[in-house]
Amino acid sequence: MMDLDFYSDSSIIADSRSYFDAMRAQGPIVREPFWNSLIVTGYDEVMEILVNKDGVFSSTVSILGPNPGLPFEPAPHDIRAQLDEVRSAMPWADHLVCFDGKKHTEHRMLLGGLLTYKRLKQNEEYLHGLSDMLIDRFIAKGKCDVVPEFGHATTVYAISDLMGIPIEDRALLLEQMGAPPSQLAGDAPLKVGPDPLSAMKPLFDKYLRERIESPRGDLMSDLVQAKFKDGTSPPFDTLSNLACFLFGAGQDTTSRLIAMAVLILGERTDLQAKLRAEPERIADFIEEVLRHDAPVKVAYRLATVDTKIGDFDIPAGTIANVCLSAASNDAAKFADPASFDIDRPNVRDHMGFSKGPHGCLGAPLGRMESRIAIEHLLKRTSDIRISEEQHGPPGARSYRFEPTYTFRSLMDLHILFDPA
């Protein structure tokens, strides 16, 4: 496995579990030879980096990792001054996911104050109707491609409704957002600037200005009224960037989660029967999907000073590939991790939504969307089956995944079912 480049070898896309297991067998932290990044697979080591108590690890490389690399030659022992000089020009620098320290905390609180329990409960009522509406479109056919027809459609409609995005603009925004970052080919990482979502910004500028003039009770109406903890108002461009990123992140990850959940159900008729009989266990099922095969495989952090994790020395300027999926499948933390078990006692310790200051802000929304989607799909169908015509027979399945080294994203998932 050391002969395979995690960031360019397509064989790892379909079988990242084998790669992570092989790396972990050599140690919880291994330096790979192609990009000189660290492959961190141990649960405790991943947690230590993500929690980042002393601010040693920066999230400036959070999206693309070591590709295209740092725009400077790291100085010995401490690169903080170098990083500050170029931070604003680095890939994705204008977006929350790459912020550090006080700036990250302040901007995260802006969004956190909007995703309230009350707002999520209001969205929950919408989601029940949405799931049935989408299922109505394909139920009579006895088959569907889960990825575009159910998973992706659910999350795009959901985040658009929550934010107040007009129906007629949703397809355009998805096109402007482009392919997922960290593609093996086609992402042109050397050309990625501080705001890869800039094509979306004019529309969001328009939405937010309309909300300033005439609030509508949606999330963007609350966003334009949001203030930092000290009472000051954020710059308009800051609000627009937050809105762009929220739309992108709010539909992308959960759509992958729903698709993987349906794949697992299609392979496990016993699990389908259990969840139909005990729908209250669907929430536990979703947690085990997040542990077993989550939508985000890895995150990235940059060591800003010389540091140490366990006995492993990490020089300043080192990029760590923090393997979330690997940590969630570490046998030192989860017994028999390759088995799918919704009765696992510590299932919520998984890394499916990451951990620490950069843990997924939309995790409660993602959990709710996926739970409701699966609940309605199971209620409206019986005997969900994987299409052998499209994916092959049991024991010899073939699934296609988007060619991205960061995400775990099915390109399609064809199922057959009997209407209930």
Give a verbal description of the structure.
By secondary structure, the chain is α+β, with helices and mostly antiparallel strands. It has one domain (11-419): Cytochrome p450 (Orthogonal Bundle), CATH 1.10.630.10. It has 16 helices and 10 strands. The strands form 3 sheets. Strands 1-2-8-5-3 form a 5-stranded mixed sheet, with helices on both faces. A hairpin with a 6-residue loop joins strand 1 (29-31) and strand 2 (38-40). Helix 6 packs parallel to helix 15 and helix 13 packs across helix 15. The protein is globular and about 65 Å long.
CATH class: Mainly Alpha
Percent strand equals 5-15%
- Which secondary-structure class do the elements indicate? alpha+beta
CATH architectural label? Orthogonal Bundle
Q: What's the arrangement of strands in the largest beta sheet?
A: 1-2-8-5-3
Overall domain count: 1
Number of helices: 16
Give a quick summary of the entry.
By secondary structure, the protein is an alpha+beta fold. Helices cover 45% and strands 10% of the residues. The chain contains 16 helices and ten strands.
Could you outline the blueprint of secondary structure elements for this entry?
Elements: H1 11-14, H2 16-26, E1 29-31, E2 38-40, H3 43-51, E3 57-58, H4 80-86, H5 101-112, H6 117-138, E4 143-145, H7 146-163, H8 170-177, H9 201-213, H10 219-223, H11 236-267, H12 269-277, H13 282-292, E5 298-303, E6 307-309, E7 312-314, E8 319-323, H14 324-327, H15 363-380, E9 381-386, H16 388-391, E10 414-419
Parallel strand pairs: 2-8
Antiparallel strand pairs: 1-2, 3-5, 4-10, 5-8, 6-7, 9-10
